[in-house]
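User: Hey, quick favor. My workstation is busy. Could you predict this chain's structure for me?
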Amino acid sequence: MPNIVVAIPVRDEAERIGACLEALASQRSRSGYEVLLLLNNCADDTESVVRALAPRLPIRITATTVTFPPEVASAGEARRLAMSLAAERAGPDSILMTTDADGRVAPDWVAANLAAIAQGAEAVAGRALIDPVEALAIPAHLHADDAVECTFAARLDEIDALVDPDPADPWPRHDEACGASLAVAVSAYRRAGGVPAVALGEDRAFVAGLRRVDAAIRHAPEITVVVSGRLEGRARGGMADTMKRRITQQDAWVDDRLEPARDRFRRARLRARYRAARRGADSAAAVARELRITPEALRACLADPFAGTGWERVESKSPVLQRARVIRAGLGQEIGRADAILARLRMREEAAD
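Assistant: No problem, here it is.
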């Protein structure tokens, strides 16, 4: 089996790092793995807790302490450095995994990630679930709003799966890309250029980078980690800040990864045609007309070594693929439109069978 290193950025987590490490030490996996902690800008007793606990656990734990200057200190920079150090430690034919210091991975977390990789994935995204006890402190209206948004996100993702299926990521799946549960082959990690240097949203940016270089990415619904539902977080602008802000006033717009259902259907259909054109199974000139770009511009994108990078260039050039936001007040209507699209797609699939 390849070496496995779990990278965890840690800042002021004296109260939670113990549960995080105990969950990792209680894995059912028989594969050897070690944990690399990046203690960054800690002002509490996190280091003392780790030093006292590590010798008692049946896994190897390495802790590195770093103090970032204020202008670069961020959750994104901490994850970037933690993953970089883990990649150096692991070696070229290894697997990197990462989670959050306030999280508790499921007992089969390591084994389930390895199983997905053994089935052909180069990267695996799991799901983050808020601690059920701490979730009780979150107002009911936030849970309700989140449920509606998640319903819409799942509808859009199913449209993608039906119109432009990905052999590496079959349905059922999810559409999360969170640092609380990611695994990646070192080869794919290096091909993507590592974790981008961004202050926030480094997890999504990293998965987007993997997609650009055609990494096989599996969004595995069975892989889970329980994360805190606290309203006082460690990352400025992170999930805790978002929930705290929405308690006072809900955002007018939904997550910017979402778009109107008809736009998503068009995007998926044109992406499928773009892939077909790369294989020579569709006319580049006809696809260019529908994209409303010149055949020369499309051919330049088709010539890119990576389909993902080429498609990103297509999206930036095509006027019909410019993204629109979805207003929260219109979510119910958009879910109805997505359901209508899915009904037609399912009927088409049944007829084809």
